[in-house]
Amino acid sequence: MKSAIFALGLLALSVCSAKEVSVHDPVMAKEGDTWYVFSTGPGITFYSSRNMKDWTPEGRVFRDQPVWAKRAAPTFDGHIWAPDVHFHNGQYYLYYSVSGFGKNTSGIGVTVNKTLNPRSPDYRWEDKGMVLQSVPLRDDWNAIDPNIVEDGKDGAWMAFGSFWSGLKLVKLNADWTGLAEPQEWHAIASRSRGPSVAGQSAGPDEIEAPFVFKKGDYYYLFASFGLCCRKGDSTYYVVVGRSRNVTGPYVDRNGVDMLKGGGSTVIAGDKDWKGLGHNSAYTIDGKDFLVLHAYETADNYLQKLKIMEMKWDASGWPVVDAADLNRYRSNQLPSP
């Protein structure tokens, strides 16, 4: 009996002490039988997994900072923000942003690789440089938080943006490494209550992290409202709107245009989890999943990876179960 109690105690201790994956702004891609999560961090941190639960740290994408980073963002500190990853034309394209907190001295870049497996002989990231730059007093938008979406007509678009005048969409060239010419831009979401001004201040309009997910006849635009990165004071939450066209207009459940402040809540924080946001979304083996970070109250508001099944109501809107925040627990394995 004592040995059984001792064994149970060890099991409980191991569960309590298990280290979870701590990330901001997670995105995923699959190669072969392995999933990879990329996230904000020094040089872009990434992890691998065979089951989307047990994750092995794989180090950094960039050993050194992108050569152009300081030109676009003089206060860049080595932390590369908000990646997005896509497979296209036989290569993986990893988009990323460099910036300074609360500034729009920012740039979005892209690096490519034949494989995501760091143990493959073909593994080598080749940075293609800057795709887009924002400049204070010239631009009323912020070139961070890129997300790529295909339009089904052999075209690719980049959604991006944070604060200022909101979220934008711009068409990419055929190589996916620059803007298409002539340029085609669209404003897709905003919380602005006044005229657009290309100021140095981010302003009060809390919106960022676009992610466009195609489902059926609709493109769903997810975004994060509120404030990130403030531990227990974080107010981040996920909203959504939809459109039959990739360029919009995107409207919420009540028909309110996201350019006019619309956005239906998908998931917000509770007593156990704060600052939920900067999501991505994927279809995996016939099921849809929402991937995001959340701050755990019981762990001093440490940011943690969350993967939640996403279902759809009778009207075709995404629904997640908040209880999955506690059900899903990642496990960080030792580094190889």
Topology (elements, then pairings):
Layout: H1 2-17, E1 27-31, E2 34-39, E3 41-42, E4 45-49, E5 54-60, H2 69-72, E6 79-88, E7 91-98, E8 106-113, E9 126-134, E10 147-150, E11 156-160, E12 167-171, E13 185-189, E14 207-215, E15 218-225, E16 237-243, E17 264-267, E18 273-284, E19 287-296, E20 302-312, E21 318-319, H3 324-327, E22 331-332
Parallel strand pairs: 5-22
Antiparallel strand pairs: 1-2, 2-4, 3-6, 4-5, 6-7, 7-8, 8-9, 10-11, 11-12, 12-13, 14-15, 15-16, 16-17, 18-19, 19-20, 20-21
Q: What labels describe this entry?
A:
hydrolase; EC 3.2.1.55; 336 residues; mainly beta; 3 helices; globular; Extracellular exo-alpha-(1->5)-L-arabinofuranosidase; five-stranded mixed sheet
How would you briefly describe this protein structure?
This protein is mostly beta strands and 336 residues long. It has 3 helices and 22 strands.
Describe this structure in words.
This protein is mainly beta and 336 residues long. It is built from three helices and 22 strands. The longest helix is centred in the first third of the chain and has 16 residues, at 2-17. The protein is globular, with a radius of gyration of 20 Å. Residues 1-18 form the signal peptide. Its EC number is 3.2.1.55.
